[in-house]
Design a protein that fits this description.
Largest sheet: 8 strands, mixed
Helix content: 25-40%
InterPro entries: Acyl_CoA_acyltransferase (IPR016181), BioF2-like_GNAT_dom (IPR038740)
Organism: Candidatus Adlerbacteria bacterium RIFCSPHIGHO2_02_FULL_52_17
Order of helices and strands: EEHEEEHEHHEEEHEEEH
Domain BioF2-like acetyltransferase: 126-197
Protein name: BioF2-like acetyltransferase domain-containing protein
Shape: globular
Strand order of the largest sheet: 6-7-8-9-10-5-11-12
Low-confidence stretches: none
Oligomer: single chain
Mean pLDDT: 95
Amino acid sequence: MKILDSAPRQDFDTYIIRPDTQFCLREPGDSLTFIYESGYLPYSGAENLSNVFYSARSARILLPQFELTSENRRIAKKFDGQFTKERAAHFVPDEVFYDFCTAYFAQKHGTRAMPRERLTTILNSGLVTKTTIYRSLSRPVAYVLEVEDGTMSHYWFSFYDLAYAKQSLGLWLMLDALRDAKERGREHYYLGTVYGDKALYKTNFKPLQWWDGKGWSGDVSLLKELGRKD
C-alpha cells in the first residue's frame, strides 16, 4: 500500500476532499481487508482509475455482536417479504440497470454525481464481488453493490426506487445486507462515510465503530456530534 503525495483527479461531483484526506495505491499483494482496516475506502471519483483508496470518517459494524434494535425491527416489518432477492456473483449489467442507477443518483445527488462513465468505472474496478437485485413483480426496485474480502464486506453503493424513499427503503436495504453478512459469518461490515447529518442514519446499527483518523472508535455520541457540525 503506497501513500500518494497528491490527490488524484476528480471527474465527477462526488467527493469533498478534506485537509486530512490521504490517498493510497493498492499494490500487488495488498489485501483489501488490511486497506479497509487502515481506514481507507475505494476512490471512484475519476474515470478509468482503479486501485486508489482514500481515508475517511467511515463506519463499520461488528457483526458477531450485531443484533436488531427496536428501530431496526420496525423497519424490518415494513419490507421483509415484500421483494424477491437475487445475489449475483457474476452480474452482467444491462440498459435497465444503467438507466435505473443513473436516474436514482441524478434525482438524489445531481446529474454529475453518477453518470454512466462513473458507474462503468465502478463495475470495471474488480472490487464489486456481489450485486443484489431486489424485485417486485419482476420489476427492479433496488440494486446493492458489495465488496467482499476475507471476513469483511463493504456496502459500497445502493440504488433504489425513490417512490419508497419516505418509507425508509434505503435503511432497510442496509439492514438486510447486514443480516445476510452476519449469516455468512463475516466479522466486519463497512457502511461507508459518515459526513453530515444525512449520514447519521447509519448509527441506527449496533455495535458501530468509526474511523477517527488514527483508529476505530466506539464513541457514537462523538460521531453524531461531528456529523451535525459538518
